């Protein structure tokens, strides 16, 4: 779906690129790890 997002520049697909991290010990690891968020 990331390809679809870049081809169509469709921000509806943003949520599939970078899902919100679930509350866990890996939140710190996931934070700031997504170049596609605005």
TrEMBL record:
GO molecular function annotations of the record: hydrolase activity
Keyword terms, alphabetized: Hydrolase
Protein name per Swiss-Prot or TrEMBL: Alpha/beta hydrolase
Organism lineage: Bacteria, Bacillati, Actinomycetota, Actinomycetes, Catenulisporales
The PET hydrolase/cutinase-like domain, residue ranges: 1-35
Organism of this sequence: Actinospica acidiphila
Matching InterPro entries: PET_hydrolase/cutinase-like (IPR041127)
Pfam families, per database record: PETase
Organism domain of life: Bacteria
